[in-house]
Structures are given as structure tokens and as C-alpha cells.
Amino acid sequence: MMSISKAVKTVTALVAVTSFFQFSSCTDDDPPGFDQAINPIWQYNFNIGLTTGIAPFIYEDRVIYAAYEALSSDLRANQDLLAFDIESGELLWTWNDHFEPEFQNFGSKSLRAVHNGIMAATIGSRNFAINLKDGTTLWKNRNTTSTSSDDVSIFGNLLFRTDFGFFEVDGFYRDAIMVTDFATGEWEKVYEVTGGDSLQQGLEVPSFYTANNGDLIGLFTNTELDMRTNDVYPSLISYNFTTNEELYTVSLDENPNNSSAVDWFPVIDGKQVYIAVDDMLVCHNVETGARIWKQDLNSNLLSAGFILVEGRIYAKSEGDGILWCIDALNGNVIWQVPSTGLGSRLYHYNGLLYWIGDNVLNIAEMSTGQTIATVRAPSSFKNGDDPFAPRMGLDSETGHLYLMSYTTAYCYPPLR
Description:
- There is one protein chain.
- By secondary structure, this protein is mainly β.
- 1% of the residues lie in helices and 47% in strands.
- It contains 1 helix and 34 strands.
- The protein has one helix spanning 378-382; strands spanning 22-25, 42-45, 57-59, 62-68, 79-85, 91-95, 113-115, 118-123, 126-131, 137-142, 147-155, 158-165, 174-181, 188-194, 199-200, 207-210, 216-226, 232-240, 245-251, 267-269, 272-277, 280-285, 291-296, 306-309, 312-317, 322-327, 333-338, 347-349, 352-357, 360-365, 371-375, 388-394, 401-405, 408-412.
- A 5-stranded antiparallel β-sheet has the order 1-2-34-33-32, with no helix packed on it.
């Protein structure tokens, strides 16, 4: 087994796609869609009919989008990564160094794992490390005995993923956490869990903190599915990756049922860890796993999740469309207001919350939750089937918003 202390030139694929893509700047006298509360700084038309995938994310002076490389209405085409200058919208590079000619699509849930300008990504059994400065591939490899979730996480130069499925030929359900050094891509197994032939596992990648003695501690969830009853049993696991020993496993739901799944990765803040589990938000002590508080919500946080800002948790439950503000210390509700349904994750800047919900950009006051503006995608004024997709990113330094419809990338200024 790999120890933490020890752990952890391929083909460049820079494809010219200018014949498929068009860039344009926005002006005040543009057609309908450009006279709203905020208007685009720049836009870029992918001209491909349908695109979705990872949320746009910022690295230094560029923003990275994922888009299909050909016309697609059935998700059949591969997805490329495209890097744009964050200020001008100029296309800087395109990456499409896939193993297969189709169906290679980036997962939307994954944490962005970037170390020294290298982004790691998994697509099923395929693993990639991509240079965000020039769009070249540092390394890529395939799993031979398992497949992976699309989720990855990092600590320093260490990259973690989860593998799942049948690891052996005995029919037992097994999940594993794998680790590699960002520079090499040579994977090793550091943790495994099994439930025999009746409990299907659901490991997620770890979130990390450093113990007082310097040990690396990972907190991650496992959601076991009883194949006989369809009941789901979510748990929180604490594991010392320095000494390779499990510290505790605690249940996250006292009344498990067939929808008791974990909605997002653990969020660690000091001695507390916060987790969304089906229709509730829970807080546990990171060192002992003891429950500190639980707040019941009316529906899950599967897409929108939650964010922790200055001692307050902002969350959006989707089945009932409620926007929540919760005291992170004790779980008390500070306010709750009617909101939107399915959409993107929440972002914040200068006292405002931003998210895509019901196909529009929503802007609300963090102090009250009251929506003060909504913005439609300009493309939707021309084509009602081309609204904002439920993906967005935000530059924490400038407040610039990076959005996408199903055909077009947009950069917006913050409302304030």
C-alpha cells in the first residue's frame, strides 16, 4: 500500500475549431436580451446545438468551458475543453485528447482538481491530467479492472479518485479510493470497502484537514444500497491517510430509506463538517464524528448544494424551491424564502447570491434572500429552446460571472 510521504510526453491535441466557433463582443445597441439588469461583456457561439458538462471555472487569466465538439442532440459527441481569456473572450486553446471518438463527457458534479496549472479529470475508466496553460496532455491512462466515478479531489500534489464495481471475480461489491501523484498518474489503492454480495457501495472522494500532529485526515461518505430492500445507508468515514487507519464511521441518517443519498462532498470548517443528506443538512465534529446539529429541509440539495460564508450556510432545496440561510454554529434557520427549482450551484459576491434556476440567472440579497434581479440568456430571445444551462462559474476577485446557454458562452459583470 502506498504511503503518503512517498506517494503520490504524451500526444498534444490542440485542434483548430475556428470553422465551428464564432466569437463576438456585445454592445449597448445589440438586439433584445441586452437591455437587462446586467448585460454580457463578451459572448462566444459554439454553433453546436447543445452543450453542457462541467461548470465554467477560472484559472489565472482564463476561464475553462466544456462543449461538445460536433452537433449533438443526444449527448453522443465527445466534449472538448476550451479556454478563453477572462477579459476579452478570445479562444486560447482547445483540448480533445480522448480515447474514444464519442460519448466522452465530463461530469458536472466533480470538484475541480488543479495543482500547479494541471487539471485532473476522470471520465468513467479514463483519467487525464491537462495543462491549463496551453491545453496539452501531461498524462492519460485507463483503468483495466474497474471503472471510476467522475469525481476527483486533491491535497497538495496528491490526486484522489474513487473506483467502483466488482474488483474481484467473487461477486462482491467493492469500492476503493485511489491515489496518485499529479506528476505521474501512477495509481495505487489506499482504501477499500465491501459489503459482500448484497450491499452496493457508494464511496465519494475525500475532503481533507491536517491533524495537530501533521497527519493527513480525509473525511468522505459512503452510501450503501441494500440490494434486497433498496434501502440506502449513508455514513461519514474519517481515515488517517498518513498512518493508513480508519478513525471512525458514523451513520448520517437515523431513518434510512430508498432516498437517503448524500448530495455533495463534506465541507470542513475548523472542527465542524457539514454534509447534505437527502432532505436534511447535518453538522458533525470532525475529530469524533459526533452529531452537533441537524436541520430538516423539505427536499434535497442535489444540484444546488450549499455554500458556507462567514458563519452562515446558504442552500437551495429544489423540490420545493426554497432558498435557506442557516446559522452554521447551531443549525438554526435565519431566513427561508421561496425560490427556484432545479438549477446550478450557488455563488456569492459583494453581498449577493447568484445562481441559475428555472433557466434564468437569479440574483438575491444575502442578508434577506430576496431576489432583486433575474436575467435571461440573450440566445433565448432568439430561440426559446436555448436558455441558460444549469452551470455557471464566478471569479471571486472581479465578480465576473461565466454562464452558458446550450449554444453560447457568456461573461457578465456582477450586479454590484
